[in-house]
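Support request from a user on the community tier.

User writes: "When I paste my structure tokens into the form, the page sometimes reloads and wipes my input. The last time it worked, I copied everything first. Here is what I submitted, just in case something in the input itself triggers the reload:"
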């Protein structure tokens, strides 16, 4: 296994390109006091069980005092069989008491019998990393046309796909926590730094309590399996990241033990993600892992959900707000939103149809994309094959399909394909107009043909030209 020299945290922050933050994390969470001792490199993420040799040397004025290992179950032992030769020391750690987090602490003593920490760090045993030889994907900025909410759901799906690959249950999306995460991500962009807590706005747990009335919500990783006790606590843990794009994110997270642990933990039940963009187009990510226990959280979540659904559905009757409200429902990734989307996916209103397709792209991305691509290909073939006279023009539904795709916002590449189909439609309309004008001196027949242009080829230069000639 390759050597990892990463900053490992209880609630992890990775902030590539934010050097000041990395220094802050190093000082507060992972102590390596080189005035006391110098450690030789060692692995932080290991298989389970593992036997890990630790070697190093004490600095002048210090002698080795003690090494303490805290196991995943909370029990602590003083490491025996420490060998010292001059200023050098060595010992072997045996990590065999369960998979998970181990904490190692090494101290040194001065001539005046004062004890100082030389090392405090985390070790991760049995945490899946992903294959070390897999190349890191290129960090490319996502298309600016893709809403940040869609990027967040995409990352959530990737995390669940990783859990499935290691045979862990998928996490359930929690929209209230996602709303809190979006606000926190925007605060990070505003302040130009990643932090778990800002003065005046608190942590994600604080935000969820203030916004939705969740109580007994603890900002730390869950210590055990979910419980339904009489008044249980719930837990949230966040991962913060700043990158140009999403492609390398999961690759990096799979190889950082402190992130991989909550990402693969059987103790987690829910997840949420908020993403905000900088002016330059990079993304700030706030990913929330949670264990939500007890009826109090379920009731609060249900109340928030029902209120949002009522608000959205009441406004679905207002034509100008229907697309917006349908998209809002879709972000909950719940059955009601998908059911409404399927109902409106063939609506006569292109804006509403486009919103419905966006919701389905969130819920069923692969199947919806295949269906849209198939419809666009069929429309393109119909317009390309059209010849005035022997073949009738494509049905009006073909144009409705095209306009519905053009009203989507979640898949810019499909918009680009729709533009190509629209170009084929305009060319076909031009051929229809040329055929109408070639009718000779029969003015009545020509007028009828021009009127058909207006009906069959609306919103094209050919239709505008025909209108001027009538």
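"...and here is what came back when it finally went through:"
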């Amino acid at each position: 296994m390759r050597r990892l020299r990463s900053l490992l945290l209880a609630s992890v922050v990775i902030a590539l390109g934010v050097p000041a933050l990395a220094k802050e994390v190093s000082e507060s969470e992972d102590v390596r006091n080189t005035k006391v001792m110098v450690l030789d490199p060692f692995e932080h993420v290991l298989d389970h069980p593992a036997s890990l040799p630790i070697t190093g040397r004490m600095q002048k004025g210090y002698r080795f005092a003690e090494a303490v290992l805290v196991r995943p179950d909370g029990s602590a032992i003083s490491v025996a069989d420490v060998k010292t030769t001059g200023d050098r020391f060595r010992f072997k750690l045996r990590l065999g008491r369960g998979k998970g987090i181990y904490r190692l602490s090494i101290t040194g003593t001065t001539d005046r019998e004062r004890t100082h920490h030389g090392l405090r760090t985390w070790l991760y045993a049995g945490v899946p990393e992903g294959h070390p030889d897999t190349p890191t994907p290129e960090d490319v900025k996502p298309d600016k046309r893709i809403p940040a909410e869609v990027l967040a759901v995409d990352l959530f799906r990737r995390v669940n796909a990783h859990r499935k690959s290691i045979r862990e249950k998928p996490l359930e999306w929690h929209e209230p926590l996602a709303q809190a995460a979006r606000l926190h991500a925007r605060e990070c962009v505003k302040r130009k730094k990643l932090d778990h807590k800002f003065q005046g706005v608190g942590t994600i747990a604080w935000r969820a309590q203030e916004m939705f009335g969740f109580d007994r919500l603890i900002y730390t990783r869950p210590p055990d399996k979910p419980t339904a006790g009489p008044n249980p606590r719930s837990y949230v843990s966040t991962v913060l990241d700043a990158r140009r794009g999403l492609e390398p994110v999961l690759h990096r997270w799979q190889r950082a033990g402190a992130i991989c642990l909550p990402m693969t933990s059987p103790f987690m039940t829910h997840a949420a993600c908020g993403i905000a963009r900088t002016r330059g187009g990079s993304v700030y990510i706030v990913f929330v892992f949670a264990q939500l226990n007890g009826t109090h959280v379920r009731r609060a979540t249900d109340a928030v959900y029902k209120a949002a659904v009522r608000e959205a559905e009441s406004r679905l009757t207002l034509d100008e707000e229907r697309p917006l409200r349908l998209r809002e429902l879709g972000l909950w990734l719940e059955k009601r939103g998908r059911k409404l989307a399927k109902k409106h996916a063939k609506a006569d209103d292109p804006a509403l149809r486009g919103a419905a397709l966006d919701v389905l792209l969130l819920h069923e991305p692969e199947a919806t994309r295949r269906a849209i691509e198939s419809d666009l290909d069929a429309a393109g073939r119909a317009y390309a094959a059209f010849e005035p006279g022997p073949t009738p023009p494509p049905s009006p539904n073909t144009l409705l399909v095209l306009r519905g795709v053009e009203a989507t916002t979640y898949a810019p590449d499909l918009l680009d394909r729709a533009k190509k189909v629209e170009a084929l439609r305009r060319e076909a309309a031009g051929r229809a107009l040329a055929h109408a004008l070639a009718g000779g001196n029969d003015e009545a027949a020509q007028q009828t043909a021009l009127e058909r242009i207006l009906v069959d080829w609306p919103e094209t230069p050919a239709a505008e030209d025909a209108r001027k000639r009538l």
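Agent notes: The reload is a front-end session timeout and is unrelated to the input. The chain is about 45% helix and 20% strand. The CA atoms of residues 36 and 66 lie 13 Å apart. Escalated to web team.
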